C-alpha cells in the first residue's frame, strides 16, 4: 500500500467530529495546493486494538497500516480536541507506539479544538513539546479553533480559516524544492 504524501491524524473518538473535520480541511488544502495525495485518520479508524496495544506490533492490521502511513507521510497534520487542558489520552497512546526517531525532521502542522479560548495554548504547551520529543519539525504557525468557530461541524470562522491558510503557506516553503510538487502560484 502506497502512503499518501499528506497525512492527518485526529485524536477524537467520536463522529462527526469538529477536530477531524478541521484536520481534514488542512490536509485537503495542502494536498490540493501541491497536487499530492492526502488522507485523514482518527482514533476510531485505528480500531479497538489501540487501547490494548503495548507495542506497535500489537495493533491489528488496519491500525498498523495507519501507523505506517503516519510515519511515512511527507507532511503530518495533527489535531486533538482539548480534554482537561491537553490532548486526548488515546491520541498520546497512538504516538507512544512510534519509535522516537521515526518522526525526526518530519514537518508537522499542529491544530487543536476546544470549547473556549482558555484552552488555546494546548498547541504550544502540549502538542509542540510532544512532537519536539520526536525531533519533528513543527511548523511555526499552529491553529486552535473553538466551538464558536464551527457551524454544523464545519469551520466557518474567517479568522481561523485565514490562520490555517497561513500555516499551510509554511508547508509550501518546505515542499518548494521537492521534485514533482507544484506551487500554488504556478
Describe this structure in words.
With 186 residues, the protein is of the alpha/beta class. Helices cover 40% and strands 19% of the residues. It has helices at 18-34, 43-46, 49-52, 61-72, 89-96, 122-133, 158-175, and strands at 6-10, 38-42, 75-81, 107-114, 137-138, 143-146, 150-151, 154-155. The strands form 2 sheets. Strands 1, 2, 3, 4, 5 and 6 form a 6-stranded parallel beta sheet that branches. It has a two-stranded antiparallel ribbon with strand order 7-8. α1 (18-34) packs across α7 (158-175). The longest helix has 18 residues, at 158-175. It is globular. The model is unreliable at 182-186 (pLDDT under 50).
Short description:
The protein is α/β, with parallel strands linked by helices and 186 residues long.
Salient structural properties:
186 residues, alpha/beta, two-stranded antiparallel sheet, 7 helices, 40% helix, 19% strand, globular
SSE diagram, text form:
Layout lengths: L5 E5 L7 H17 L3 E5 H4 L2 H4 L8 H12 L2 E7 L7 H8 L10 E8 L7 H12 L3 E2 L4 E4 L3 E2 L2 E2 L2 H18 L11
Parallel strand pairs: 1-2, 1-3, 3-4, 4-5, 4-6
Antiparallel strand pairs: 7-8
Radius of gyration: 15 Å
- Overall geometric form: globular
Low-confidence stretches: 182-186
The class by helix and strand makeup works out as alpha/beta
Helix content: 40-55%
Mean pLDDT: 91
Total helix count? 7
Number of E strands: 8
**What is the first-to-last residue Cα distance?**
30 Å
SSE ordering = EHEHHHEHEHEEEEH
| Percentage of residues in strands | 15-25%
The largest sheet is: 6 strands, parallel
Amino acid at each position: 500500500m502506497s502512503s499518501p504524501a499528506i497525512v492527518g491524524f485526529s485524536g477524537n473518538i467520536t463522529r462527526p467530529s469538529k477536530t477531524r473535520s478541521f484536520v481534514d480541511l488542512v490536509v485537503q488544502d495542502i494536498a490540493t495546493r501541491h497536487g499530492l495525495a492526502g488522507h485523514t485518520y482518527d482514533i476510531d479508524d485505528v480500531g479497538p486494538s489501540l487501547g490494548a496495544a503495548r507495542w506497535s506490533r500489537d495493533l491489528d492490521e488496519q491500525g498498523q497500516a495507519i501507523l505506517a502511513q503516519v510515519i511515512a507521510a511527507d507532511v503530518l497534520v495533527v489535531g486533538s480536541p482539548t480534554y482537561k487542558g491537553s490532548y486526548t489520552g488515546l491520541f498520546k497512546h497512538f504516538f507512544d507506539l512510534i519509535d522516537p526517531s521515526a518522526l525526526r525532521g518530519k514537518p508537522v502542522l499542529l491544530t487543536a479544538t476546544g470549547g473556549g479560548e482558555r484552552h488555546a495554548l494546548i498547541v504550544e504547551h502540549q502538542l509542540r513539546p510532544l512532537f519536539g520529543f520526536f525531533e519533528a519539525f513543527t511548523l511555526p504557525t499552529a491553529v486552535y479553533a473553538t466551538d464558536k468557530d464551527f457551524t454544523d461541524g464545519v469551520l466557518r470562522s474567517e479568522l481561523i480559516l485565514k490562520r490555517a491558510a497561513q500555516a499551510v503557506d509554511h508547508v509550501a516553503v518546505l515542499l518548494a524544492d521537492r521534485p514533482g510538487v507544484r506551487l500554488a502560484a504556478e
